[in-house]
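dumping this here before i forget
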Amino acid sequence: MSTQHNDKFSRRAFVRNTSVVAAGAVAGSLARTASAVAPANVERIVKNGRINQSVCKWCYKKQTLEELCAIGRKMGLKAIDLIGPNDFPTLKKYGLASSMIGTHSLRKGMNDKNNHAECISKIRSSIDAAAEAGFPNVISFSGDRGNIPDDVGVENAVEGLKQVAGYAEKKKINICLEYLNSKVNHKGYMFDNMAWGVEVCKGVGSERIKILYDIYHAQIMEGDIIRTIETYSDYIGHYHTGGNPGRNEIDDTQELFYPAIMRAIVETGYKGYVAHEFIPLKNPIKSLAYAVRICDV
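structure:
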């Protein structure tokens, strides 16, 4: 079945159309080519502000960090995601945070004891940078399965994260272990189901060890997004958005309905960041404007 919806009276089409209207001059004033968009032509989109929205720079290759910060700030974003210390001055120039800071390899992660020394060293360095800048989160990964059974991977990850959890608590920084799909994008990745990550968090037993719940990846592997958010909200420290299939715009071309997901997040009392991590196929700034609008529930 096609993922394209031609029924202009569908619920998603209605939301899309009313969202663009509600965004007002924002959508209308954005230039037709992304490179021509100037911050002066962007108006504030965020009105409610119950979701602290961020955006991943790697998805916007045609924009410099400076441009994305200026545009994002005008829209009402509060952070740029997956940004490291070298770019902190640019973020701070625009009053933005780094909502997530990188650490170690995705493939060689905490599920293998042979990786612990390197992973822990990099996590500690990123915790120092985050604490000094006043930013909240650093990322971590399970790593690939290889020949490691899932239960052994849990035990190894718990052992490794316990070695750095106390440091994260002292510095008041969250270590967020990312849930990724092993079906489409990351073959062999171990943390590809919510139960695995929850077991790691429970095993470490620290308020600073959390899950980065990537909604795109979770939809591919398990679905049941809203129920999962409601059930495991205490373990979630960060969110990523993305359309499925394709990891593109979060509009009516895909199967996730983000306004309802955002309302569910708000209802859990979550106060962290939701970062947009979709790869735009259309005008990237218009696509970002649309995403920010529908997630401002």
